[in-house]
Amino acid sequence: MIDVVFLVLPDTLLLDLAGPAEAFRLANQALRRRGRAPAFRMRHIGPQPQTASSVGLTVSGLEPLPAGFDPAQPTWLVLLGRPGEVDEVVGATPDWLAARDWLGRAVAPRLAPPGAPAGALRLLTVCSGALLAADAGLLAGRQATTHHELLDGLRRLAPAAKVQANRVFVDDGAVLTSAGITAGIDLALHLVRRHCGEDIAATVAQVMVVFARRGPQASQDSGLLAHRDHLHPALHRLQDAVAAAPAEAWDAARMAAVAHVTPRHLARLFREHTSLSARGWLEQVRATLAAQALRQGRDEREAVALAGFSSPRQMRQALARQRA
């Protein structure tokens, strides 16, 4: 189980905390419903045992800043945003300074360096949480982003960082940074997909009724999360079923039966809500899974079986169409 540790300071943007936390909670819920163990255990820490959030609601029960983290325990530390301009946020309070110094002592030595495989400890930031990471010296040599209004401030605080504009989030191995507010949900979905699977991430996105946006790189987009920005229950029912078992036989009759509609009506629904045919969407899902399998070092035969293609030739043709 991964410890997801939220660092809560005074005036923390409540949605920066609640959005990702709900995504991880819903992932645990979806895993339990499938008979699998939960993946995430959430903790909340801070310089004070309680503090007021950005909307005035008090967040209490905060653990003290730990002396360190167990090197054998997978841990994601999440730095959250606060309202205000750069000069109003950075170093403006004793709590910020305490958190910055603690990050330098307890976190910086444990983070894998830029370009190295991520270790047990990862750092996640939402919105101006990236400014705290920069102030603590954790972004040097890394790709990073933040809210578009704070990009210049991030560049000043972390001149050795490779600051990326117009990005929902940036995955740089041990450090993952996201833009403002709802981008924290996108980052959480990205991590849920990676650690729990495409079907769990798709379920979480559907329950949260969020637009499943592109990830950090187009080639790594999830075919199972794509075309889920609609609210039609029949299509979601089918897409959930395919996400859970993409390699099974999915002919038009079976897809229509799972969606509880006729094949003709299913074809109309797909055209209306995804601009694809049901067959075209299924091929996109399978091509994504096959490409991922090949990138992971699987041979063609394994990729064909995992994705549900009938032959290597069919898989190669589908991959070519998706690249066109």
UniProtKB/TrEMBL annotation:
Per its UniProt record, what Gene3D superfamilies does this chain match? 3.40.50.880, Homeodomain-like (1.10.10.60)
Cite the HTH araC/xylS-type domain residue spans from the record. Answer: 236-324
The highest taxon in the source lineage is Bacteria
Known PANTHER family for this protein? Answer: ARAC-FAMILY TRANSCRIPTIONAL REGULATOR (PTHR43130), HTH-TYPE TRANSCRIPTIONAL REGULATOR RV1931C (PTHR43130:SF3)
What name appears for this protein in its UniProt entry? Transcriptional regulator GlxA family with amidase domain
